[in-house]
Specification:
Layout: H1 4-11, H2 17-33, H3 47-58, H4 63-71, H5 74-78, H6 82-89, H7 91-104, H8 112-128, H9 131-145, H10 152-172, H11 176-190, H12 192-226, E1 232-235, H13 240-249, H14 254-258, E2 261-267, H15 270-283, E3 285-286, E4 292-293, E5 306-311, E6 317-324, H16 325-333, H17 338-341, H18 351-369, H19 373-384, E7 388-392, E8 398-402, H20 407-414, H21 416-420, E9 422-427, E10 430-432, E11 444-448, H22 465-496, H23 507-517, H24 522-530, H25 536-544, E12 558-560, E13 568-570, E14 582-587, E15 591-596, E16 612-617, E17 625-634, H26 639-649, E18 653-661, E19 666-675, H27 678-689, E20 694-699
């Protein structure tokens, strides 16, 4: 562990003697304050603040940041007041220590309200002095480096918090080196086996690639020398967590990711960067569409560089980054590099530092405008995590969902029962489709009904695993319940024809038949009948008759109410509606499909009692039914609008519409209209016939 003398020697390379002595003084003060305290590893506690100061020294941070690093745990762990620090080291250092102390209590697995409050504290401290977050990041980095002494559960919690919060903040501030180390250490703590496997694979791959990497490096260096350009060429290493994220996110094999060779060329001036670009494009053929100029248009966090991809020797793809030494320092240390290049205290911030200050200023504005801490956390988190959406419940609770989530995902995130009983939603107080992707910042309200059930169509647009799992489970239960109910009606309908019913069958007879079918419960038998896997007529015959005895076909149709659910569907070939003569086709696994009595598709099995059953419409039938109409009429302007207004005037609804021209004068329009019954359909047709130029209206059937 480096001593204070070793640190002082390092600091003397860029700080004045008086400033180095102030840092020394802060160290001795911290050593005295933490006297007798030990870390989990058994070391004296003061080794931790010294290590944090060393991390900041790597970034060439100023003396006040280093003093705050030495003292960052004093207020919290030793009971020394902020006022005492202020008297000893000045107000600036005391404010930095106070700001970091507040952040130490951040715990992102608590309730949303507590999380939001901590974010507010962070924003306020950063707004006063952005060095607060730099000291905190250095503190977290040393804690991550010494995680192995903690229990497995605590290691994973701290690693998760680091990957979700601190790594994105480091990225947002342009601190590439810190972000990479956070991600690799967090990855190792969260997934030790995956990390080790990828590490060993990278080690093997680098050994196999060494010769080719050296050749490419030499050819790039020679190319620069020929053009009289001075620059450092080096191979870039991909970090473990970056490889893991690409393998998972892009579903690529390890070999595909490692097939790309990456190099960095660092030069003295900006114009030299463009000269290098021309030189390497002459050496190897560039890949079209893969050149990016981040020097002219820097990234949001201030990152600057030229990126290009080339076809190298043997056709291997080569990624090259070209930048100046200052850009290299900015890329690695981000906002922290500002103190390395700052020549005077009154100099205006520029580049990365200006962008970071702008971001913090925006964060402060959000904090001031937010109605509460929850609104504020939503705004900040959107900025840090663009791959997620943050939406509000009507009571202001924040919900975090994957990008592309819908109101149904939101409903299941709130509670399973809310998802199962969801019928509609309001997004920002307006009614919206359940399939509409949610945008961050929206307030989502779910409209539910006690008897509502999940819709199978939801599976086409939900994105969260929780929603998908619960929908499937609910549909399975719903299908079973409806199958049992329909199966009971079908069996009783057959038994009633012989002046019997399921209740009148002796229990022993039922148990005997369940044993023959290898079923445990009568509901299993009824479910099979409802799904069409067993015929009600055959089951009734086995229950009532002795072996070989034939029963006459029962009379009287089964009434359809339209509320049978998933086990009853309406044939698309003939689109039956209430009032039409109908017949039911029992389809294995699907339940009952309702056809028109004269439908050609079932003409061959129409009179087979094991395949078809006579149906009728109940008096209280409910629902909307689709009918296809073919309308021939003279061509005229506004034709579609006329047809739509006529259907609407008859309380109908157009589900689908298409038009063909038979010749220049006659148009043929195909309409799919939803109606309640035949009387309603007659009203719709009557309205359409009243239109000028209508020649013929035909209901399409199989």
């Amino acid at each position: 562990m480096p001593s204070i003398d070793h640190l002082a020697d390092r600091l003397s390379t860029y700080l004045g003697k008086d400033q180095v002595n102030l840092v020394r003084r802060a160290y001795f003060y911290a050593e005295q304050a933490h006297d007798g305290q030990r870390r989990r590893s058994g070391e004296a506690y003061v080794t931790h603040p010294l290590a944090v100061a060393n991390i900041l020294a790597d970034m060439h941070m100023d003396h006040q940041s280093l003093m705050a690093a030495m003292l960052h745990d004093v207020i919290e762990d030793t009971g020394i007041a902020k006022e005492a620090l202020c008297a000893q080291f000045g107000e600036t250092v005391a404010e930095l220590v106070d700001g970091v102390s507040k952040l130490t209590q951040m715990n992102f697995e608590t309730k949303a309200e507590a999380q939001a409050e901590n974010f507010q504290k962070m924003a306020m401290a950063m707004a006063r002095d952005i060095r607060v977050i730099l000291v905190k990041l250095a503190d977290r980095l040393h804690n991550m480096r010494t995680l192995e002494v903690l229990s497995g559960e605590k290691r994973r919690r701290i690693a998760k918090e680091t990957l979700e919060i601190y790594a994105p903040i480091a990225n947002r501030l342009g601190m590439h080196n810190v972000r990479i180390e956070f991600e690799d250490l967090g990855f190792k703590a969260m997934y030790p086996m995956r990390s080790e496997r990828i590490f060993q694979a990278v080690k093997r791959a680098r050994g196999n690639r060494k010769e080719l990497v050296t050749k490419i490096e030499q050819s790039l260096a020679h190319c620069l020398a020929v053009d009289g350009i001075e620059g450092d060429v080096s191979g870039r290493q991909k970090h473990l967590y970056g490889i893991y994220k690409k393998m998972r996110g892009k579903r690529r094999a390890f070999t595909e990711i490692m097939d790309v060779y990456a190099f960095r060329i660092v030069v003295d001036k900006v114009d030299t960067c463009y000269r290098v670009l021309g030189a390497v494009h002459n050496l190897y053929k560039p890949l079209p569409g893969r050149f990016k100029d981040y020097i002219a248009i820097p990234k949001a966090n201030g990152y600057q560089s030229l990126h290009t991809t080339l076809f190298g020797m043997h056709g291997v793809p080569i990624e090259i980054q070209i930048r100046t030494r200052e850009m290299e320092e900015m890329a690695n240390n981000g906002i922290a590099a500002h103190w390395l290049y700052k020549s005077s205290d009154d100099e205006q911030p520029k580049g990365t530092h200006a962008r970071a200050r702008q971001w913090v200023k925006g964060v402060l504005e959000m904090q001031q405008r937010a109605g509460n801490s929850l609104e504020f956390i939503e705004s900040v988190k959107i900025d840090l995590f663009p791959d997620e959406v943050y939406v509000f419940t009507p009571k202001g609770r924040i919900m975090e969902l994957p990008k592309g989530s819908t109101a149904v995902d939101f409903a299941y995130a709130v509670h399973t029962d809310v998802g199962n009983s969801c019928i509609a939603c309001r997004i920002n107080r307006r009614l919206a489709p359940l399939s509409e992707p949610l945008q961050s910042g929206s307030t989502v309200e779910i409209v539910s009904a006690p008897g509502a059930r999940p819709n199978p169509a939801w599976l086409n647009f939900v994105v969260t695993g929780k929603a998908r799992t619960h929908i499937r489970h609910a549909l399975k239960l719903q299908r079973r319940s409806e199958s049992v109910s329909l199966g009971e009606r079908l069996l009783n309908k057959v038994l009633n024809g012989f002046e019997s019913s399921l209740d009148k069958i002796p229990h022993e007879r039922v148990l005997l038949m369940l044993g023959e079918y290898r079923l445990e419960h009568i509901d299993d038998l009824l479910e099979d009948i409802g799904l069409g896997n067993r015929m009600a007529y055959v089951v009734a015959r086995r229950l009532l008759a002795t072996e070989g005895e034939q029963l006459p076909n029962p009379e009287g149709p089964l009434a359809i109410r339209g509320t049978e659910g998933l086990v009853l569907s309406y044939a698309k070939c003939c689109t039956p509606i209430p009032g039409d003569p109908i017949v039911g086709h029992l389809s294995a696994g699907k339940g009952m499909v309702v056809h028109l009595e004269n439908c050609r598709n079932i003409s061959e099995i129409r009179h087979n009692p094991e395949k078809c059953i006579q149906l009728s419409w109940a008096k209280d039938v409910t629902g909307e039914f689709n009918v296809e109409l073919r309308v021939e009429l003279e061509h005229q302007r506004g034709l579609i609008a006329l047809l739509a207004s006529s259907v609407n005037a008859a309380d109908g609804n157009i589900e689908k519409i298409s038009m063909d021209e038979r010749d220049g004068r006659i148009s043929v329009v195909q309409l799919v209209v939803s109606v309640h019954d035949r009387i309603h359909l007659a009203r719709v047709i009557k309205k359409l016939r009243a239109l000028a130029g209508v020649i013929r209206i035909t209901r399409m059937r199989a």
